[in-house]
Amino acid sequence: MNSVPNKQLVYVVEDSLSSGALYCSYLEQAGYSTQHFTNGHSALLGVKEQMPDVVLQDVCLPDISGLEVLSFINRQENPAPVVIITANSSIDVAVDAMRLGGFDFIEKPFSKDRLLTSIASAVDQHQADIATVPTAVQGTPSTSKIITGVSEYFVGDSLAMSTVFRLLDSAAKSKASVFVTGESGTGKEVCAFSLHKASARHDGPFIAINCAAIPADLFESEIFGHEKGAFSGAVSQRKGAAEMAAGGTLFLDELCEMDLNLQAKLLRFLQTGTFSRVGGQTVLHSDIRIVCATNRDPAREVGEGRFREDLYYRLNVIPVQLPPLRERGADIMLLAEHFLAEKTKANDKHFRGFTPEVKSMIMQHDWPGNIRELQNVIENVVVINDGELVSVEMMPSLAPVLSKAPAKPAAVVLSNSVPSFGSVSSPTGAGMQGIRPLWIVEKEAIEYAIEQCGDNIPLAAACLGVSASTIYRKKKSWDSGGEG
Ligand SMILES: Nc1ncnc2c1ncn2[C@@H]1O[C@H](COP(=O)(O)OP(=O)(O)OP(=O)(O)O)[C@@H](O)[C@H]1O
């Protein structure tokens, strides 16, 4: 080992002696200490003996799978961030690794700069993680800002949202791309911003680009910038969003609107971490985290040829689906009260709450425009009226109330088509009408989550708020005729 006190220690887990030696030399030239392990078991022993600052690990190892090494590291105290090295053909394994808590992945062949950028941001993440460990555990007081969870930035308390918060909180610890889907106005941008603020990049820039709002011919320059004279109107050099977001997060809203040519350029940037400004030759690097969003169904866009499949898999590492407001139960009033207080203060009014009739009106409405619609309605009421309580007369006529969908279970919120738990027929034929054995209800919810997560059991477990081993255990019991 070439460990020197105060140098950041990187474990390089790579079975090829020559590649491992090359990575170590790049890292040591940049001031890191390194230790090279040529198989998974020796890396596990190394981690047990001393947790490094970062692990750089090939996903294919001769003895055990790279995913096992990753899971082992993540079960230790203060685990080091793991940067996965992958061959192009094993990209789906790399995506699995990110879902299991990997920090970043880089595809072979990669440049020295790409490697160093990823390792530097992993070191930052590790230091931020250590700063969040309670002082009593760490032994010394920390002056670093404590990073709190995403719920700090989100109004919402429902079970539906707690599932989302749990996913986002674990996503915040890595650099993995997050793909947020949900109807218009459900808070996708708020979600991206919360994720940024809860991550180690919280002091870096958050740059949001609405892909639907940029004319196609200006798109490339918006994202990658341009040199002076690159096209008529380019009177000076300009940085693009990818450059401006360096060290922070780039939020690409309405991503499915992006032109196919530019999708190819975005993919190249994601693979290499490099790009050039329009009209420029210089190769630039930018260390950014990508969060993207759409209110379309991205898998369908892929199926219909409007969205590149390879880009979709690259970005859809952590999929987050925001539930529509009508499925968020008590959150509707929580948000209404939040907006009432906010708008009352901003407009110097005196509202303290809603009459019971207005509360019931708010709860009965379907809110097709989601949170944005609710926010607009409350703002409208506050600006035009004043008083202590918002009464029915003050409310604008809400669109005709659609018959409310039957209450849906909040345990799984990944789709609008959650199976009804209020089914009248009991598969076992036992019990009173409408009541079914709990284990069957649980089995359905778990099977539904697994299906929605594309058979990814760890992800389904995260969505359900249980450990993956609980799901494996229950599946085994069901398969052998038990009740889980
Ligand atoms: N949980 C929340 N707490 C408080 N305000 C919220 C929350 N979620 C959304 N909002 C507010 O609702 C409005 C819509 O949110 P946002 O723009 O993030 O939605 P969106 O899903 O990105 O919409 P679109 O699909 O139209 O781009 C914003 O004004 C935002 O501030």
TrEMBL record:
<dbReference type="InterPro" id="IPR025943">
    <property type="entry name" value="Sigma_54_int_dom_ATP-bd_2"/>
</dbReference>
<keyword id="KW-0238">DNA-binding</keyword>
<feature type="modified residue" description="4-aspartylphosphate">
    <location>
        <position position="58"/>
    </location>
</feature>
<dbReference type="InterPro" id="IPR058031">
    <property type="entry name" value="AAA_lid_NorR"/>
</dbReference>
<dbReference type="InterPro" id="IPR027417">
    <property type="entry name" value="P-loop_NTPase"/>
</dbReference>
<dbReference type="Pfam" id="PF00158">
    <property type="entry name" value="Sigma54_activat"/>
</dbReference>
<dbReference type="InterPro" id="IPR002197">
    <property type="entry name" value="HTH_Fis"/>
</dbReference>
<dbReference type="InterPro" id="IPR025944">
    <property type="entry name" value="Sigma_54_int_dom_CS"/>
</dbReference>
<feature type="domain" description="Response regulatory">
    <location>
        <begin position="9"/>
        <end position="123"/>
    </location>
</feature>
<dbReference type="Pfam" id="PF02954">
    <property type="entry name" value="HTH_8"/>
</dbReference>
<protein>
    <submittedName>
        <fullName>DNA-binding NtrC family response regulator</fullName>
    </submittedName>
</protein>
<dbReference type="InterPro" id="IPR011006">
    <property type="entry name" value="CheY-like_superfamily"/>
</dbReference>
<dbReference type="GO" id="GO:0043565">
    <property type="term" value="F:sequence-specific DNA binding"/>
</dbReference>
<dbReference type="GO" id="GO:0005524">
    <property type="term" value="F:ATP binding"/>
</dbReference>
<dbReference type="GO" id="GO:0000160">
    <property type="term" value="P:phosphorelay signal transduction system"/>
</dbReference>
<dbReference type="InterPro" id="IPR001789">
    <property type="entry name" value="Sig_transdc_resp-reg_receiver"/>
</dbReference>
<dbReference type="GO" id="GO:0006355">
    <property type="term" value="P:regulation of DNA-templated transcription"/>
</dbReference>
<dbReference type="InterPro" id="IPR003593">
    <property type="entry name" value="AAA+_ATPase"/>
</dbReference>
<keyword id="KW-0804">Transcription</keyword>
<keyword id="KW-0067">ATP-binding</keyword>
<dbReference type="InterPro" id="IPR009057">
    <property type="entry name" value="Homeodomain-like_sf"/>
</dbReference>
<dbReference type="Pfam" id="PF25601">
    <property type="entry name" value="AAA_lid_14"/>
</dbReference>
<feature type="domain" description="Sigma-54 factor interaction">
    <location>
        <begin position="154"/>
        <end position="383"/>
    </location>
</feature>
<dbReference type="InterPro" id="IPR002078">
    <property type="entry name" value="Sigma_54_int"/>
</dbReference>
<keyword id="KW-0597">Phosphoprotein</keyword>
<keyword id="KW-0805">Transcription regulation</keyword>
<dbReference type="Pfam" id="PF00072">
    <property type="entry name" value="Response_reg"/>
</dbReference>
<keyword id="KW-0547">Nucleotide-binding</keyword>
